[in-house]
Structures are given as C-alpha cells and as structure tokens.
TrEMBL record:
Pfam (any one): PMR5N
Keywords assigned by UniProt, alphabetized: Membrane, Signal-anchor, Transmembrane, Transmembrane helix
Top-level lineage group: Eukaryota
Broad class of where this protein is predominantly found: membrane
Cellular component, GO, one term: membrane
Family: Belongs to the PC-esterase family. TBL subfamily.
Gene Ontology molecular function terms on file: O-acetyltransferase activity
Ranges where the Trichome birefringence-like N-terminal domain occurs: 68-123
Lineage: Eukaryota, Viridiplantae, Streptophyta, Embryophyta, Tracheophyta
Organism of origin: Rubus argutus
InterPro entries documented for this protein: TBL, TBL_C, TBL_N
Name recorded for this polypeptide: Trichome birefringence-like N-terminal domain-containing protein
Compartment(s): Membrane
Topology of the protein relative to the lipid bilayer: Single-pass membrane protein
Amino acid sequence: MTKQLTLDRRIQSLFPVALASLLVLGTTRVFLDTLKSNHSFVFQLYGRPRGQEQRPAVIISPEDRIDESCNVFEGKWVWNNESYLPHYTEQSCPYLVKQVTCQKNGRPDSYYKNWRWQPNDCKLPRFDPLKLMQILRGKRLMFVGDSVQRGQFESMVCMVQSIIPRGKKSLQRVPPRKIFRIDEFDASIEYYWAPFIVESISDHATKHTVLKRLVKLDSIAKHGKHWEGVDILVFESYVWWMHKPTINATYGSPNDVQEYNVTTAYKLALQTWAEWLESSINPERQKVFFMSMSPTHLWSWEWRPGSDENCYNESYPIQGSYWGTGSNTKIMDIIDDVLQNLKVKVTFLNITQLSEYRKDAHTSVYGERKGKLLTKDQRSDPKKFADCIHWCLPGVPDTWNEILYAHLLKSHQNFL
Ligand SMILES: *[C@@H]1O[C@H](CO)[C@@H](O)[C@H](O)[C@H]1NC(C)=O
Ligand SMILES: *[C@@H]1O[C@H](CO)[C@@H](O)[C@H](O)[C@H]1NC(C)=O
Ligand SMILES: *[C@@H]1O[C@H](CO)[C@@H](O)[C@H](O)[C@H]1NC(C)=O
Ligand SMILES: *[C@@H]1O[C@H](CO)[C@@H](O)[C@H](O)[C@H]1NC(C)=O
Ligand SMILES: *[C@@H]1O[C@H](CO)[C@@H](O)[C@H](O)[C@H]1NC(C)=O
Ligand SMILES: *[C@@H]1O[C@H](CO)[C@@H](O)[C@H](O)[C@H]1NC(C)=O
C-alpha cells in the first residue's frame, strides 16, 4: 500500500513533463507517418547510441494508467467507424501473411475492423507505437505458441512498424523463429513456433504433421534454450491439444507412448513449463505473460439455435453473454492452478471472454488451407472449408496487443 502511494506520487510529479512531451511525441509521429523518410527522426530525437547504459525515461501519462481495480477483460465491443480506426491496414503493413489478409482474399464486408473493446470500468490506454518502442529499447519481446499466436505476433509487428523508417527494420525467418528487428531501438519482436509449448513431433515450423500428434510432456529444453534471456515472453497453447479427447504423449521414458486424457496431458505439460520458468527466469529482468485460449466459432447453433453452420457469413459480434463450448473450462482451471502455484510471476491475459463475442472476426473462407488460399470451389463450401479458428488482421489480436501494451506500460512505471 505504502509502496503504491509513493509510486503514484512519483508518477504524479512527472505529469507536467509528461504533458509537454506528449505534444512533441505526437508531432514526431505525424512527421514520421507522412514523411516516410529514410532518415531516422526517431533516432535523432530519442535514440541513443548502442551500448550507452542510461535509458531515457518513458513518459507515462495519466491516460496510460489503468486502475488496479479495473478488469480490462470485462466489457463490450462498441461500433466506431469514425474516431477509432485500426492501427494499420492490409496495404500499409507489408508483413502480413496471406492467411490473415481477409479483404485482399475477397471478404466482402469490413465491419469486423471497426469494433473497439471497451472495458466496463476504465478505458484502455491509447496505443502509442513510439512509447512501446521506448519500452522495448534494447529488449526482445517474444511470442511463443501456435499459429494463433503467430497472428498476435504479426499484429504487434504491424502496430509498430509504421513509425520505423524503411531500411531500419527487417523481418527474418530463422525457423522456428520469425524475427522483426528494429535497428534504431536495438530491439526485436519475435515469434517462436511451439504449438504445445513443450516438445512434440509438430515442432518443425512448416513441415509439421497436423493430424498425427505426439507430445513429449516432460521435455522442453530444446525450446527453452531459445527463450533464455528474452526480456518479455508471451506464451500461448491451446487449440493443438483439442483435436480429440485423448492425445498420444510420452512422459518419462521416450519410448513409452500412451494415450493421455487431454486435460491430464495439458497439466503435465504446463508443469514442465512451470519448472522451466522457475529454473530459467530472472523475475527482476524478465517478464512473462500467458495468453488464455483463443476461442473458436465452429458451430453456429451455439449462438443461433436451430442453425447448422459456422463462423462463415457472420458480420456482427454476439450481443449479450456468451461462452462457446470450444473454450474448455477445465483447461482454464488447470492454467489457473499452475499459475497460482508458480514462484515466478506470470501475468495471465484472459482474452477468451472478450474474443468469444467475435464470431464475425475469423478468416472464414478468406484465408488459407494447407498453406494455399482457398480455391473458388472450396469457398463455395464454407461448411467444410471455413476457418473459424484464425483471425483476420487488422482485427481481434490487435486488442489483445492493446491489453499487453497496457500491462507493459504498467509494469514499466514500476521501474521508473
Ligand atoms: C527511401 O529509399 C528508397 C529505396 O531505398 C527510395 O526508393 C525512396 O525514394 C527513398 N525515400 C526518400 C524519401 O528518400
Ligand atoms: C459509419 O457507420 C454508420 C452506421 O453503420 C454509417 O451510417 C456511416 O456511413 C459510417 N461512416 C463511415 C465514415 O464509414
Ligand atoms: C495414438 O497412436 C496410435 C498408434 O499410432 C494410433 O492408432 C492412435 O489413433 C493414436 N491416438 C490418438 C488419440 O491420436
Ligand atoms: C479421462 O477422461 C475420462 C472422461 O472425461 C474419465 O472418465 C477418465 O477417468 C479420465 N482418465 C484419467 C486417467 O484421468
Ligand atoms: C449471408 O447472410 C445474409 C443475412 O445476414 C443472407 O442474406 C445471405 O444469404 C447469406 N449468404 C450466404 C452465402 O449464406
Ligand atoms: C478468465 O475469464 C473467464 C470469463 O470471465 C472466467 O470464467 C475464468 O475464470 C477466468 N480464468 C482465470 C484463470 O482467471
């Protein structure tokens, strides 16, 4: 309590400075956006030569602070096509993969891009890419998980890339990683393919078996060595577990393959992950996040009784309370249990409920299957071919990143 008060005071004493700098930051951003210069204004104004230890303070304005008591995961989606525009467009972000560019792939409606998440008791801070880059200066942010998590990674890259001049940023593929480097901030935003977090036979970034699954519930070292020292880690793993009620896995002897209940297997895997965290993470220097399950909208009768379709042709979010059977509450409880017992602090971003409402925001037939865009014939058979797992971008994962950003701002001010 006392600690919190002193913190608040320290932050308050920064307000006049904050307001002045906000203006400057705002102007710089417009500059960069319009000039698209190859020369780096960001670097001139705020950059520091590499290796110089002193870090400029990031200015946290009053609007950036979410109240401790506010649950940002409870709220509603509000339509706003005027003052709230997506942070980027399919055209303005060259880093989007075909799988997520729904408009380009022929999606006729674009309403899904204009819903803003409004928590009940507070406002999410306005996302400011420059501020995020200042927080990330000299750091690595890594998303670990499956293709849903890859969507969140791409969303984050697109949300920040517009302020970085051409030639000062690059996207590299180093399977199973993708690395977006931002030279002038000496920072990177990365993605690491590990659909089960622990090791499995599906770990090859592109040539992985999808139907045949075998998870090594007690093995994580091969992945873990790539996560060591990463400043901010964001984990996610869910949909790959949920193919059938049981899953082939090993635990102990690598030759002893058994069918495990998915819940049992998931728990063992998370425990392996938890042990890795406890032995490898330095809580003083590293931050860990865990994303809750991304919901699927595979059965339209769940929100429209009597129908027999899926997310295809859905243009509006679900109104009123809703929780689909695809989001397994037993798995939710396991995550809760494992995180509660961890000695390392992991921030749980419980985005399931807010995403549950968004039956309209999946790629549906305007995405890929087995790495190829759907053919016309396949598109005309949405029952068989609609993808109600992945999300169009810009879209729902941008909101997850706004929430992640809010937390990064919050934890950053604690280090002021
Ligand atoms: C920036 O660089 C690209 C290629 O390197 C060039 O085509 C473009 O004209 C440059 N833009 C400006 C504003 O100098
Ligand atoms: C915004 O949405 C409203 C209601 O759907 C519509 O009438 C209006 O034309 C839209 N405005 C813009 C700028 O798209
Ligand atoms: C487990 O592996 C066996 C042998 O390959 C296979 O017959 C069985 O269907 C698999 N079980 C699951 C749940 O995939
Ligand atoms: C696996 O799940 C089934 C159905 O949920 C349950 O009946 C069974 O007891 C479970 N087995 C184990 C080993 O937990
Ligand atoms: C899509 O939904 C609209 C109503 O929301 C309906 O009129 C139209 O026939 C549907 N299209 C298809 C291809 O199912
Ligand atoms: C996540 O949110 C849902 C819906 O609000 C809630 O039922 C669930 O208990 C939460 N999970 C955890 C682990 O807090």
